[in-house]
Structures are given as structure tokens and as C-alpha cells.
Amino acid sequence: MNLADFQPSNSATPTPIEPASWMRSALLSLALSEKGPTKNNHALLRKQFVFSNCVIQAFEAILSANKITTEEARLVDELIQTYLCDDLLLALGEDYISVIHRLLMPFSEAVEARKAKSKPSARMAVFTEFSVTDAPVNFV
User: Fold this and answer.
1) How many beta carbons lie within 10 A of that of residue 56, not counting itself?
2) What are the extents of the domains in the chain?
3) Whole-number Å distance between alpha carbons of 81 and 45
4) Which of 41, 63, 59, 42 lies closest to 51, judged by CA?
5) Which of 9-18, 28-37, 116-125 is the most confident on average?
6) Rounded to the nearest 5°, which phi and psi values hold at 125?
7) Closest listed residue to residue 134, CA positions, set 117, 126, 73, 107
8) ∠50-52-54 over CA atoms, to 5°?
9) How many other CB atoms sit within 10 Å of the CB of residue 55?
10) How far apart are the C-alpha atoms of 133 and 49, rounded to whole Å?
């Protein structure tokens, strides 16, 4: 297909972002990029590119919809737990960190509420696949 063959859609409004689809694509891209060479800062640059162009866009779509599906929650958890590191946070900058913070904050508040209700030394709250659940302290 040549660029000349491309026909823009007839719709004047853009197609809404489907967060789960974008996050699945991001996970695939991130997994493939880990298999490639990791010389210098190329791995970090690839992660930064995927996060800033796919992940953050999906997070913003979730925030604007003001709801999250169980699949989206699972994907958010996987992205954050597997790929988000301190170096990537520094590379992304304050605006993107703010989006991540706003998305995760409601879960943080739920964790704090659960901690207040349970014995802190015996249990801790952990964000897993679909929601915040109680887990043993030694759970790793």
C-alpha cells in the first residue's frame, strides 16, 4: 500500500482510544524490545517511547472515562509491575508521572483504608489482577 492509496475516514470525529487494546500493544512492544540489544540507553529509550505514545494515552482514556474494566486493571498492573522503573519515571517527566499518579491514586486510597481496618503487622494490601486484595505479609 502506497501513501497515495491511503484514504482518510469520512468521520470528522476521531476514533476513541480503546485502552485495553493500546495496553496490549504496548506490552507486546515492550516484550519484543527486551529481546533486542540493550546497549547504552536504547532499551530505556524504547520503553520511554512506548510509554509516552501508547501507555500514557491509554491511561488518559481510562481517566477521562472515569471507569476501569477488570481487563484494563490487569493490564495496568502488568505494565506498572513489569516495566515501570525509576529510570523510566525520570525519563518520562512530570506530566506523564502525574497521569500515572492520578490513575493509581484511587487504588492507593483503597489500600490505605484496608490497612487501617486490618493489623498492619499481619497483613498488607496488594494490587493484583482485578482489585485490591489482602495478601500475607511474606507474599512476594
Assistant:
1) 21
2) 18-136
3) 18
4) 59
5) 28-37
6) -95, 140
7) 126
8) 55
9) 29
10) 32
Q: Which residue has the cell 489500600?
A: 111
Instruction: Measure the CA–CA gap between 83 and 79, rounded to whole angstroms.
Output: 6
Amino acid residing at 72: E
Give the cell for residue 76: 495496568
- 40-91 pLDDT, tens digit each: 568 889 999 999 999 999 999 999 999 999 999 999 999 999 999 999 999 9
C-alpha cell read off for 20 = 485495553
**CA–CA separation, 21 vs 100, rounded Å?**
18
The pTM of this model reads 0.66
Q: Enter the C-alpha cell of residue 78.
A: 502488568
For residue 126, the cross-strand partners are 133
Beta-bridge partner residues of 134? 125
